[in-house]
From TrEMBL:
InterPro entries: DNA-bd_dom_put_sf, MerR-type_HTH_dom, MerR_fam, TipA-like_antibiotic-bd, TipAS_dom. Keywords: DNA-binding, Repressor, Transcription, Transcription regulation. The keyword Repressor applies. It comes from Staphylococcus haemolyticus. This is MerR family transcriptional regulator. It comes from the Bacteria. It holds the Pfam family TipAS. PANTHER family: MERR-FAMILY TRANSCRIPTIONAL REGULATOR, REDOX-CYCLING DRUG-SENSING TRANSCRIPTIONAL ACTIVATOR SOXR. Residues 6-75 form the HTH merR-type domain. Gene3D superfamilies: 1.10.1660.10, Antibiotic binding domain of TipA-like multidrug resistance regulators. One of its GO terms (molecular function) is DNA-binding transcription factor activity.
Amino acid sequence: MLNHDYFTPNEVSKVTSVSTRTLRYYHEIGLLVPSYIDDNGYRYYHSQDITKLQTILFLRQLNLSLENIQDYFQQSITDKNAILEENYAQIIHQRNHLNQIIDYLNHHLINHRNEEINMDKFNQFDVNEQYDKEAALKYGDTDYYQSYKDNRTQFNDSEKQDNDDHTNEQFNQFFNEMNQLLEDSYSADDAYTYQNIETLKKILQRQVPNADNQFLNYMALTYENDERFAKNINKNRNDHLNQYIARAIRAYIK
């Protein structure tokens, strides 16, 4: 007769909240084999099996596939910890992303309770994060990027969101004004047009305090060549506005 260290699938299910169907599947693929199976095919799990199951559940929360979890149990302690370390970084990334969402929702509920949530801004989180990563890779060793990072560190998360909202409003106002000039057939080389680039420069300096004419030239290239920026600038505006602004920037910095 089995001692109290063995449990039926139903008992394991109650303890761990894992369905008996899942336990059977884990058995079939060899991930969690019951320590004892009697002559009638009844399965019994030892307390050590439950400990292993808890490890499996933990690894699943780290987004490891069942195949990778099987491989995990075959590794040395050093290699196991290397796997955990790799997935730890991913979990930190997910946590930070969730914190951003929480901050945005908090900002919306406090400051815009009588308005419907702006999904464009909500979806902008992923885009902004991608831009930050790309900027770090491309310009991480430049004075411009360091100026940007130093500027961001002086704000808490809520202040960053407020600053970003205000900056985005300024960008949109600038784009609308430039779009009107384009629609009114003003040339990008016209002084009346390119003098507005001074406004763009001031907006950029809210994010990158040391932004100068060379930085403006970088932005001109970005507006022309990065489809994501072009799409954002031209949204509900002239399809060539991004190119128009780039030409105006070059006229301004001549």
